[in-house]
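Priority: medium. Attachment 1 of 2:
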């Protein structure tokens, strides 16, 4: 399992280890691991090392000392910008500082201009960041980001909250890294919200601590192992009834495309039969996808099939009535888009949803999640893990909080962050396709938790596959996702 540790969890691991390891051991190991990552990235010899007042700065000073070396033929020409704190440095920091000063590294007072840095090492702040970067430090971070040179961040890009992936603000700044080498355990903030943009490629350096010495983490990264129990090649002796029915309920006037996209997501990920039950039926057949059966939502009886409710559904009286009926019934549900907004506006519907025994997956984007929680979308984005956890527990459902690094949570408090997908998905209709894939996996007998994890993984990997083949991220369309998702799912099942 790819565990993700909160700052509090890292601190408690650190606390437990302090009793067993000689002082400074972890800092030296962090310095060595980061030095080797820096050497790996270094194409040239001019290195700028930014060292802050805490232990993140000590790690950086270790890197500076290692890269510059005491000998004249050391490979790197290292410049250090060191920011001592108001308090006296710790014994470890003082040792790292003495090592760096004894090396060939130059200490500068301000950012030297006109130097073509081969690599910048960011050791300003790690998990000890307490407030937004201000003054000279803020200006320095702006200048570093403008240089556009390769940056290796130590532990966490400075300015980023390791728990939430938010740049500490308001109107905050953070180092934009090419790569982040993170120590002891990986951290959620590197993988969601702004974290993916600021951390770049994430590398874990466990510092010699074996996983058995670490307590279970509160979150983890999504990976096929988490849903592989449902991945299997199809039996030859199967028929369409073996793979379930999905009915997508939605499609108010002017929004017919949304349920069709969801239906295609469901069809191409293997549901046996797929229906669109439209609020305002416009067409008897989808000529581009004649396999999809078109029905009128008011007359439709889904039997024991899976319902995907909400895409393009609107907020009419008919939409409300159909949603009420779905919540009263016992069908497995995927609840998306307008259906989420209707539920957000009705404490009665929220109560009914929470009381249901049948599985439900909710797929809100941040604004929909905010409406459900009665807060603003910036509050949701400010702590995506907490928001997803809270919604799952309040509404007794599996929740997929969408966006860069989608967060999947369940009512028992499990939280997973999805690493697949890219900004090509920031296009109308891609969420509809995701809802359809969720419904498809539910209809094929997957448990709600694994269906959500599998669908989010496959949906993101489909977008990654399209980008790898040149179809995006700019201009990627939601309609291209179902075919790519099919390829990803079949590859996984093999
Ligand atoms: N947890 C561990 O066991 C290990 C931690 N290590 C390093 O230690 C780091 C944590 O060290 P610290 O707890 O000293 O924290 P940091 O080095 O992240 O920063 C804390 C210091 O910065 C000050 N500060 C915080 N925000 C500020 C701001 N916005 N402007 C100005 N000053 C600010 C604090 O008052 C404090 O002096 C980790 O990120 C990692 O790099 C590694 O050496 C390996 C082992
Ligand atoms: N920048 C991004 N990086 C990764 N995934 C993204 C990004 N932007 C959007 N997505 C994904 O695309 C989908 C968009 O869904 P949604 O916002 O509901 O759009 P729509 O309602 O138009 O279909 C979600 O699965 C979301 O996680
Ligand atoms: K840092």
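Attachment 2 of 2:
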């Amino acid at each position: 399992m790819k565990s993700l540790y909160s700052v509090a969890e890292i601190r408690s691991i650190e606390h437990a280890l302090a009793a067993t390891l000689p002082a400074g051991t972890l800092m030296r190991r962090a310095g060595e691991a980061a030095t080797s990552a820096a050497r790996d990235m270094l194409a040239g010899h001019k290195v700028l090392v930014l060292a802050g007042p805490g232990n993140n700065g000590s790690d950086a000073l270790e890197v500076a000392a290692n890269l510059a070396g005491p000998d004249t033929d050391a490979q790197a020409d290292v410049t250090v910008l060191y920011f001592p704190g108001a308090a006296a440095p710790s014994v470890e920091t003082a040792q790292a500082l003495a090592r760096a000063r004894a090396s060939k590294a130059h200490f500068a007072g301000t950012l030297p201009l006109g130097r073509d840095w081969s690599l910048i090492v960011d050791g300003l702040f790690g998990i000890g960041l307490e407030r937004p970067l201000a003054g000279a430090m803020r200006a320095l971070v702006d200048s570093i980001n403008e240089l556009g040179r390769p940056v290796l961040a130590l532990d966490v890009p400075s300015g980023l909250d390791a728990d939430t992936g938010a740049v500490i603000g308001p109107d905050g700044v953070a180092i934009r890294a090419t790569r982040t080498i993170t120590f002891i355990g990986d951290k959620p903030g590197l993988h969601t919200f702004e974290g993916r943009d600021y951390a770049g490629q994430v590398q874990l350096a466990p510092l010699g601590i074996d996983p058995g010495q670490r307590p279970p983490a509160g979150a983890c990264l999504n990976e096929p192992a988490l849903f592989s129990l449902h991945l299997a090649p199809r039996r030859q002796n199967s028929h369409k009834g073996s793979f379930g029915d999905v009915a997508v309920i939605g499609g108010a006037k002017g929004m017919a495309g949304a349920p069709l996209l969801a239906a295609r997501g469901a069809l191409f990920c293997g549901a046996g039969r797929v229906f669109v039950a439209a609020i305002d039926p416009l067409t008897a057949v989808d000529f581009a996808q004649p396999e999809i059966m078109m029905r009128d939502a008011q007359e439709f009886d889904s039997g024991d099939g899976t319902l995907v409710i909400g895409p393009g559904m609107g907020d009419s009286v008919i939409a409300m009535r159909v949603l009420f009926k779905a919540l009263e019934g016992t069908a497995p549900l995927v609840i998306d888009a307008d259906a989420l907004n209707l539920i957000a506006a009705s404490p009665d519907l929220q109560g009914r949803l929470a009381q249901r025994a049948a599985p439900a997956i909710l797929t809100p984007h941040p604004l929909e999640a905010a409406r459900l929680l009665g807060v603003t979308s910036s509050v949701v984005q400010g702590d995506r893990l907490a928001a997803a956890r809270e919604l799952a527990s309040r509404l007794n459902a599996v929740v997929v909080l969408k966006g860069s690094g989608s967060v999947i949570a369940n009512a028992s408090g499990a939280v997973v962050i999805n690493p697949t997908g890219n900004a090509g998905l920031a296009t109308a209709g891609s969420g509809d396709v995701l809802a359809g894939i969720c419904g498809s996996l539910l209809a094929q007998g997957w448990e709600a938790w694994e269906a959500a994890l599998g669908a989010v993984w496959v949906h993101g990997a489909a977008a990654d596959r399209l980008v790898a083949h040149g179809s995006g991220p700019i201009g990627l369309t939601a309609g291209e996702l179902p075919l790519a998702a099919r390829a990803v799912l079949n590859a996984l099942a093999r």
